[in-house]
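quick one, 136 residues, struct below
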Amino acid sequence: MKAAARWRRTCGWLLDGFVALLVLFVGLLIGAGLSSFFAVVFVVVSLWMYFALLESSPRQATLAKMLLHEQVTDLSGKRISFERASARHFSMYLTLLTPFWIGFLMTFWTKRRQALHDYVSSTQVTHAPETRNAGP
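---
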């Protein structure tokens, strides 16, 4: 089980950040039309479901991670539960609050290339080898 390359993790953050911005934009539209409380609930729940459902799915990855051939696993390389994926997602907010995003930058010097939210939830992002369909 090989840890995902640093550049892959960085690209994954950027791509998943784009998805998060789209969800935020929809939330702002909802807030402008309905209520800001509903918009905040929509954004929080949508992001939670996006990350937790996909990272605990059989593919073990968000859309960005699938594109980059990464998987979220526990420390022994096994698929994580929805509960652990939820813990990983909500601890990501803690990572976002670290000064200068040190929580994310930890991937550059930790052995398993774990960010703070990976440490908190006992997860890691690994490289998932490409699977190609064999021809006839």
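Strands lie at 70-74, 123-127.
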